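User: Can you help me understand a structure? I only have the sequence.
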Amino acid sequence: QVQLVESGGGLVQPGGSLRLSCAYSGSIFSIWNMGWYRQAPGKQRELVALITTGGGTNYADSVKGRFTISRDNAKNTVYLQMNSLKPEDTAVYYCRAKHPMATNLDYWGQGTQVTVSS
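Assistant: Let's start by predicting it. Here is the structure, written out as tokens:
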């Protein structure tokens, strides 16, 4: 069974930075594609960033140039470095593990709140 635990959220002023972490436990971490998603109040959950097993990355247009996703396979952890934060980045941020071959193997964390406000 895969478990994902996010941490690193909090309150930050506009222009500030945060680094989110997602600790993975379960089978071999390196075989999973990992992603960060977010959901703001009253809105649908949306993709923020993806990182594949091979290290390829993809970002939502709204965060390109400000956010960076990375993974440390030795620590079973995926990170989201968020810089130049804006109030519209306020949301609950979720970590996702998706097996690249088995579509039924798809897991989510519980989420961590990020609030950008002065």
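Now, to help you interpret it: The chain has no helices and eleven strands. Residues 3 and 25 are 5 Å apart (CA to CA). Let me know which part you'd like to focus on.
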